Amino acid sequence: MLSDQIKNAGILRNLTSFYNFIQNDINFFLEELPINYLEYSILMYISQNESTQYKIAEKYFVSFQRVSQIVNKLVKSDYVRKEEAVCKGRIIKKLIISKKGEAILESVNNELVKNFERKKIKTAELTILNESLKRILEDIRK
Question: Whole-prediction pTM value?
Answer without folding.
Answer: 0.77
